[in-house]
Amino acid sequence: RAAHPRLDSLSSVRGRINVAIQDAASGSDEDRQHRIDSAYSEVRAWCEIVVETRLLNKVTQRYQPNVAMQNLSDIKIMGLQAAIAVIYPIWEKANRYTTAHSQPLGTLSIRPTVSELRQDWAALEQALKDYDDS
Predict the structure, then answer these.
(1) 51, 106 contact by CB (below 8 A)
(2) Are 36 and 112 in contact (CB under 8 A)?
């Protein structure tokens, strides 16, 4: 049991993010902030799965010992830079709210809002759509 890492699909994480956003819109301020942080933790996972499975077309995969060079030519290089420009900054931001990560003192009191979470999530989904359409 539990001898391998948990592998999430893009759709399962997407569903958890959507539920977390809905949950974050309700509740007390303290509870809301915890829900927003939790949603950003899921956003971080989504970003990593997108990079691994879509942008890099499974050339390299977490927990896999080999590099799938046969997939290299299928990477859509035309849309890659634009996708990275959106995904990477939001991934960096999400790292601040992941429980296992510490924050610099100067950012401890800066907390995202539900509206900001929704904007970031919409930007990520649009970046993936634009990449897929490139």
Answers:
(1) no
(2) yes
